[in-house]
Write a structure and sequence with these properties.
The chain is of the alpha/beta class and 237 residues long. Helices cover 24% and strands 16% of the residues. It has 2 domains: 122 residues, Beta Polymerase, domain 2 (2-Layer Sandwich), CATH 3.30.460.80; 44 residues, no CATH class. It is built from 7 helices and 9 strands. The chain is elongated and about 100 Å long. The N and C termini lie far apart (102 Å).
């Protein structure tokens, strides 16, 4: 070994090549990454609500408040975005503990079948106030609005066949209204079914066997549950 080798002189061979390579190549400078905006939730309805200039309601599910005059316009816009009508319900807030804008509300359940977004349209109504039917937009409103008309008493203008769908024709009043009297009058339906309220309620409360025959005894803490028959091994004997 020469003095140059011992004294830290120029190296040769692989060591020299490695040293020259390390000293001559600039180190890469890390490029700062700009913060990215998180992608919107696919089922977020906020952009659509803003686009249609709707008023959000405070509810557990995405809900907007729509006036009767703008209901058909909003329904047409939602249909153009691919939404369909899934359900329509009526609500009576007569006995509700908190103040509400009006006594009744009709909720249209609107659903998108592709991305599974769901939006509720809430329309506040006074007693006797009519509401435009969404049947011209969604044909599914036929029986849905008839049920609300029958049980709550909301009249839908423009509906092609607005008549009762659940209760007998001669029943006065609307059973889902909070002020509907809960009497004990037996009810005879058009198809011949006869419903005695006392016997029907007894089977639910456990006062007697009621229409179920035996369920009432379980609610009173009597009897034993009846297990369904089990197919024996090897099939029926």
């Amino acid at each position: 070994m020469t003095g140059d080798d011992r004294g830290g002189g120029k190296l040769s061979g692989r060591e020299g090549f490695a040293q020259s390579s390390q000293s001559g190549t600039p180190k890469p400078v890390p490029v700062p990454v700009a913060p990215t905006t998180p992608a919107p939730e696919p089922r977020d309805l906020t952009p659509l609500i803003r686009t249609l200039k709707l008023t959000e309601d405070h509810a557990a599910e995405p809900t907007v408040i729509v006036s009767p005059d703008e209901l058909l316009q909003v329904a047409q816009a939602l249909k153009a975005h691919g939404f369909m009508l899934m359900d329509s319900v009526g609500i009576d807030y007569l006995a509700y503990p908190e103040a509400r804008p009006k006594r009744f509300a009709v909720l249209h359940n609107i659903y998108h079948p592709h991305d599974h977004r769901r939006l509720f349209l809430r329309v506040w109504l006074d007693d006797g106030e009519t509401l435009p039917s969404v049947y011209p937009v969604w044909r599914a409103a036929n029986y849905l609005e008839r049920e609300v008309y029958d049980l709550i008493g909301v009249t839908f203008t423009g509906h092609p066949d607005l008549r009762k769908v659940l209760t007998p024709d001669d029943l006065e009043g609307h059973p889902l209204r909070k002020d509907f009297p809960l009497g004990e009058s037996p009810t005879l339906f058009r198809d011949g079914r006869f419903l005695d309220p006392a016997a029907f309620r007894a089977g639910l409360t456990g006062q007697s066997g009621g229409l179920t025959g035996y369920r009432g005894e379980l609610r009173r803490g009597q009897g034993t549950d009846r297990l369904p028959p089990v197919m024996p091994e090897g099939g029926p004997k």
